[in-house]
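Sample pair:
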Amino acid sequence: MPAKIVKEPPATDSEYLFSIAFGSCNNQKKSQTYWKGIVNYFGGEHGPGYPDVWIWAGDIVYVDTENHAKLKHAYSVFKNSDYKAFIEGCERSGCRIVGIWDDHDFGDNNLVGDFGSNLPTDSPFKKLSKVQRKASLVDFLGEPTRAKVAEKEQIYAAYDFERAGIKIRLILLDLRYDRQEPGENAKIMGQPQWEWLRKNLMDRDVDLHFVVSSTQVLRLDDRKETWAEYPQQRKQLLELIGASPAQGTVLLSGDIHAAEISRLGNEEEDRYGIDYPLYEITSNGLNRLRCFLSFCNYHWKNPYQEGFVIKMNFGEIDIARSVDGELVLVTTLRSSESPKIEVLLRKNIRFAPR
């Protein structure tokens, strides 16, 4: 019989505290059989067990529509596909499922939410409002998302976990609701969300932050959707991370239809006051690539890139602590289309004690 999958600690004096898995870009119109492999990987007889939390980083479904019934139907079709076994496995193990939207589950390709005071006649929100779209997403995700976003129209939320005295905070951003068309001083988030984010990042009780952004933060290419299209707000985000008293922060993102690991780099980390390596782990897409036949359309460059693979994938992060207080994150990007869920990219990230 095959041996049980055991995640070896990154050092002999380390112990695992918490695990995260995340993914994005699931086209509900395509086959969902890949979930059988994911379920077998996590929950099979020889699997490592389900993570503590699964994070949807956007584009959960592809429904560019103004019809509420079609949107609800798309979520229902997906929820009752092979994905259902993953939900059931999570429920049995105590794994929570949380998430945010991106453009295709928000309304349309590259859609911005801020049209000014008057909606144009061709706006996707004329017939199907943001409130209705949010309700459909929340119905799909259920708890704990419903409780976290009940008091606001947007879907940004923070989730706290504590293990052996280490406090971990997941910060999920809403990058569609107030987003404007790109520009030097354009906004990707509105002021209320910025104030909320500052409060969450400045909490001295939190040791480790995961900031979940449906749009890539570090990549500077402004021809594709990135924070670089909003340079002032990108600077503001990185300065906030630098000012945070946390032991470390990691960026999680999707959108690009590939697996990528990037690091900001020493010089720029120093510029923003970040005294640890700032990594971005990008997982996308679960069952969709930007390819036609054998040609894959990836023309951008990323000077911060440490690894890049064009394969369907999901992300996995295991958090350990050594006896001297160092936090070690084993970050892995795995193939979602391989029955063996093979490793595509892997990086150990270390944060020194505060």
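The chain has one domain: 14-351.
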